[in-house]
Prior knowledge:
By secondary structure, the protein is of the alpha+beta class. The chain has five helices and seven strands. The protein has a domain at 4-112: Gcn5-related N-acetyltransferase (GNAT) (Aminopeptidase). It has helices at residues 17-31, 36-43, 45-50, 97-111, 126-134; strands at residues 8-10, 55-61, 64-73, 81-88, 116-121, 138-140, 152-157. One of its GO terms (molecular function) is N-acetyltransferase activity. InterPro entries: Acyl_CoA_acyltransferase (IPR016181), GNAT_dom (IPR000182), NAT_camello-type (IPR050769).
Amino acid sequence: MKNSDQIEIVTYNPKYKKSFKDLNIEWISNYFEVEPNDIKALDHAEEYIIAKGGEIFSAVLNDDVLGVCALVKNNTEDYDYELAKMAVSPKAQGKGVGLLLAQSAIEWASEKGASKIYLESNTKLQPAIKLYEKLGFKEIKGISSSYNRVDIQMMLILNS
């Protein structure tokens, strides 16, 4: 694989819709069980994410999607966006793709005036947790999750 400087992070493009779903199903199945809410969000990404003011990011190298993530707009005062559905192809893991995706998503949310970005994860995904901590996310409690696999919630407070 080439350097990460060859990787382009692009916002939503329907031609990458299948990759968004496939990469997510692949990683979720690898560690957990795919839940009904996963299918709903992945099969109807435009409706659930884009149409509601969110964004989907793809890390692309030579038209090959190496990783994806989404920012889901939230309409409560708890937070502005949820960083969700981050998945990196096994062939690209450990090469900084997740970091590039997360940084692009945070920058995008910040440009939209967001002050808080929330995420849900699982502590058995140590590389992901370390990545989130490196980006400034801190563990929080008290927001209910619609996923069985969630055992950690984190929040990033952006300096506006």
